[in-house]
Write a structure and sequence with these properties.
The protein is an alpha/beta fold. It has helices at residues 18-33, 83-93, 105-117, 129-135, 146-168, 179-189, 235-245, 262-268, 280-288, 304-311, 342-350, 353-367, 372-386, 388-392, and strands at residues 6-9, 37-43, 47-52, 55-61, 67-70, 73-75, 97-100, 121-124, 173-176, 193-195, 219-224, 251-256, 272-276, 292-295, 316-318, 334-336. The protein has two domains: 6-199 and 371-392, Rossmann fold (3-Layer(aba) Sandwich); 207-367, Glycogen Phosphorylase B (Rossmann fold), CATH 3.40.50. Helices cover 40% and strands 18% of the residues. An eight-stranded mixed beta sheet has the order 3-4-2-1-7-8-9-10, with helices on both faces. Strands 13-12-11-14-15-16 form a six-stranded parallel beta sheet, sandwiched between helices. The protein has a two-stranded antiparallel sheet with strand order 5-6. The radius of gyration is 22 Å and the shape is globular. The two termini are 18 Å apart.
Length: 398
C-alpha cells in the first residue's frame, strides 16, 4: 500500500498550547518520514506556501475582524475569503484524508472540503470545550445562589458538549489523548475513537540543563501553561499559604505563561518569578531548575507540560481529573491529589530530599519511554482502518 496523503487543518500552530505543540511535531514527523503531508494553517503572513520534501504548508493570515479567544488565540469569522486558495492547494495535493483538530475556522473549512470532495474526515479532540465554557461562567456567581450557579454550569457544559459532538460526528475516525476521552467521544458520536497521545523531546527536556546549585535552600515550584480560570491557577496562592502554615521554608514559584489571571496570581503569590512565555532552551532550563511542577488543572485532556517536566527530571503534582493523571504514577513520578491535598503532597517530599531524588530519577525514566514517532505511527494506523480501498489504488481518487 502507498503512503496516506494527509491534509491537516490545525486550530493553532504557532501559539503556545497543546494543539500547536502537537501540530508542530506532526509536521516534523511527516518530514522525518518523508510522508506526503499538507498543513493548512493560520499565521501572521498574508499568504505563504512552502515545500520541504514531501511536506507542503499553506499559511493564511487572519483578518483584523478576528475575535480574541485567549491572549494568543483568535477566531476569524471571515476566514472564508481564503476558500479559493485552499481549494487550489487541495486540488494540487489530492489528499486521501482531511484531519481537523476542532471546530475552529480551520476545522470548519476542513470538514466542508472533506464533504465537498467526498473524502474521509478525521478529527482529533484536544480541548474540553464544554468544561472550559462552564468554568468561564464565574462572572455570574455574585448574582446566583450556589445551587442555581451549579445548575447553570451543568446546562452550559451539557449543551456545549452536544454542539461539539455534532461537529465530531462528521468524522469517520476520531482521536483523543486518553482512554477516558476516547470512550466519551464514542458515546456521544457513535464513531470509533483511537488514542492520539503526546510525545516529548527527551534531548531538549533533560535534567542536564539544571543550573541551580545543589542544596541551595530553596524549594522551587513551577507552573507552565496559560494563566486562565480553567487551569485552576488560583490554587497556587492557596498552596503557598498552606506550605507556610506547615513550616515549609524556602518556597519559591516560577510561573511560565500568560493569560487573564496573571494579575490576580501576582497579587496572590508572595515569592514568585513570572517568566512570561518561554520556548526552546529557555523553557527546558526553567523546567530543569524546578523541584516540582504544580499543575492544578481539572480540564486538560493530556498535559504536555507534565510530560516535559518528567523528562526534565521534575516530578509533578496533578489533579485526579483530565489527562495528566494518566501521565503521573502516584507516589513514584509525582502525586495525583485533590485540590486540598496538593500542599500535603509537596510537603512530604520537601521534608525528604532522598525521596525527592528518587522521584526525580523515576520521572526521567518514565519520560524516556515516550516518543512522538510512536504517537503518530498509531494515528496513521487509524487512517488506514478507514482507507483500505483508497490506499490499494496507487493513483488515488479525487
Amino acid at each position: 500500500m502507498r503512503a496516506v496523503r494527509v491534509a491537516y487543518f490545525p486550530d493553532s500552530f504557532h501559539e503556545v498550547n497543546g494543539v500547536a505543540h502537537t501540530s508542530r511535531n506532526f509536521v516534523a514527523y511527516a518530514m522525518r518520514r518523508e510522508l506526503p503531508f499538507l498543513c493548512i494553517r493560520a499565521g501572521t503572513r498574508a499568504e505563504a506556501v512552502e515545500q520541504t520534501g514531501a511536506v507542503r504548508t499553506l499559511e493564511l493570515g487572519r483578518s483584523r475582524a478576528a475575535v480574541r479567544i485567549e491572549k494568543d488565540l483568535k477566531f476569524d469569522a471571515i476566514f472564508w475569503r481564503h476558500s479559493d486558495e485552499i481549494a487550489l492547494e487541495l486540488e494540487r495535493f489530492r489528499p486521501d484524508v482531511i484531519h481537523v483538530t476542532g471546530p475552529s475556522e480551520l476545522g470548519l473549512f476542513g470538514a466542508y472540503f472533506a464533504r465537498r470532495l467526498g473524502i474521509p474526515l478525521a478529527a482529533s479532540w484536544h480541548t474540553n470545550l464544554h468544561e472550559y465554557a462552564a468554568r468561564r461562567m464565574g462572572w455570574l456567581s455574585p448574582h446566583l445562589s450556589r445551587r442555581s450557579m451549579a445548575k447553570a454550569q451543568h446546562g452550559v457544559e451539557a449543551s456545549t458538549l452536544w454542539l461539539t459532538a455534532q461537529f465530531y460526528r462528521q468524522a469517520e475516525v476520531l482521536f483523543a489523548p486518553n482512554r477516558e476521552l476516547c470512550a466519551m467521544l464514542e458515546g456521544v458520536t457513535g464513531r470509533p475513537s483511537n488514542l492520539m497521545q503526546r510525545g516529548v523531546d527527551t534531548e531538549l527536556f533533560t535534567p542536564e540543563r539544571r543550573t541551580r546549585k545543589a542544596n541551595d535552600g530553596r524549594l522551587v515550584l513551577g507552573y507552565v501553561g496559560r494563566l486562565s480560570i480553567e487551569k485552576n491557577v488560583a490554587l497556587l496562592g492557596r498552596v503557598e499559604r498552606e506550605l507556610a502554615a506547615r513550616g515549609v521554608r524556602g518556597v519559591e514559584f516560577v510561573i511560565a505563561g500568560h493569560g487573564g489571571e496573571e494579575a490576580a496570581l501576582r497579587r496572590a503569590l508572595v515569592r514568585a518569578k513570572f517568566a512570561g512565555v518561554l520556548r526552546g532552551n529557555a523553557l527546558a532550563t526553567a523546567y530543569a531548575d524546578m523541584d516540582l511542577l504544580v499543575f492544578p488543572s481539572h480540564t486538560d485532556t493530556f498535559g504536555n507540560v507534565v510530560l516535559e517536566a518528567l523528562a526534565s527530571g521534575v516530578p509533578a503534582v496533578v489533579t485526579p481529573d483530565g489527562g495528566p493523571k494518566y501521565i503521573v504514577e502516584d507516589g513514584v513520578t509525582g502525586f495525583v491529589a485533590k485540590d486540598d491535598g496538593f500542599s500535603a503532597a509537596i510537603a512530604a517530599v520537601a521534608q525528604s530530599p532522598a525521596r525527592l531524588g528518587q522521584m526525580r530519577a523515576a520521572a526521567r525514566a518514565a519520560a524516556l519511554m515516550c516518543g512522538w514517532d510512536a504517537v503518530f505511527d498509531r494515528v496513521y494506523e487509524g487512517y488506514a482502518a478507514v482507507l483500505p480501498a483508497r490506499l490499494e489504488d496507487s493513483a488515488g481518487t479525487f
